[in-house]
Amino acid sequence: MDSPPADPFFLDAFPGKRFCLYHPPAKVFYRGDAILYLHPFAEEMNKSRRMAALQSRAFAAAGLGVLQIDLYGCGDSEGDFSDAAWEIWKQDIACARQWLIQQGFISIHIWGLRLGALLALDYAKEAAQDFVQFVLWQPVLNGHSFLTQFLRLRLGNELIATDSSVTSNVKQLREQLWAGNSLEIAGYTLSPTLAITIDNLKINQLAVANQPIHWFEIVAQAGREQPPASQAMIQSWQQAGVITQVTVLPGSPFWSTQEISECPELIIATTRLFPRSKS
Fold first, then answer.
1. CA dist., res. 223 & res. 211, Å (int)
2. SS3 label, residue 136
3. Which of 66, 71, 104, 105 would disulfide-bridge 23, Cβ 3.0–4.6 Å?
4. Strands of 7-85, DSSP E
5. Could you tell me whether strands 17-23 and 65-69 are parallel, antiparallel, or unpaired per DSSP bridges?
6. pLDDT tens digits, one per residue of 65-108
7. Residues with Cβ < 8 Å from 274, sequence gap 6 or more?
8. Phi, psi of 63 (to 5 degrees)
9. In Å, how far from its chain's centre is CA 85?
């Protein structure tokens, strides 16, 4: 894909600085649009780096500026993961958006992957007009279920021999968090504050009115439908008047595969949202 090289830099924020990658738009297709990328949670962020880079280059080649930001305590940004907080991450979004405006972009869109999608929608509860369109890749539906899966990483194969023991042990880990204790999970120190916030997130409570939402979901094989939970969720949004466009594609779950993987069909379909136009 033909696009200018990305520019790495540190963005002033609070507290500390955030590592960012800015992909300038191909000048011939410049349209004044930019998109802000919000990465997924913990190790899913690292697994998704290649796909995020490929999509960013595709957007840039189509004439969009793209800003990838490592949220506070994540990746190469300042701060420890143990100090990361949902509200700080929402402040990071505002800071990144302002930087894009300062570069002269007129229309700012937001693109979130997994928990990054929930973060984008939660931010929009208070500032829906900040972004023109929302691009969601495999959004997390329920923070409680997502946190349960993350806590299971700590249990190990021995403790997940039966469903009943999993439930019991996850409950105990939750109790430790709720008592104010941080937990070390898969190399990440999860604070009780962040855990409780994630636990209470529900995507059906984060509908964005008036702005188009483009929902992309990966399934194992061509021809398969979206999971019933996703279908029910989108139906409820659409009945409430939320502008939702759904695209279901076959591919591997690149955010969680053992080896780094790609889903070219997802990049092609997502880039089509912003067709090239000569400036």
1. 29
2. strand
3. 66
4. 7-12, 17-23, 33-38, 65-69
5. antiparallel
6. 999 999 999 999 999 999 999 999 999 999 999 999 999 999 99
7. 33, 59, 62, 63, 64
8. 105, 10
9. 15
Strands 244-250 and 213-219 turn out to be: parallel
Which amino acid, one-letter code, is at 273?
L
Burial of 60 (0-12, 13-18, 19+ CB in 10 A): buried
SS3 state of residue 258: coil
CA neighbor of 95 nearest in space, from 13, 190, 187, 209: 13
Q: How far apart are CA 93 and CA 88, in angstroms?
A: 9
H, E, C per residue of 111-135: EEECHHHHHHHHHHHHHHHHCCCEE
DSSP assignment letter at 225: P
User: Which is it for strands 183-185 and 7-12: parallel, antiparallel or unpaired?
Assistant: unpaired
Give Dmax over CA atoms of the chain in angstroms: 60
CA distances from residue 146 to 43, 142, 155, 273, 279 in whole angstroms, order as listed? 13, 6, 15, 28, 43
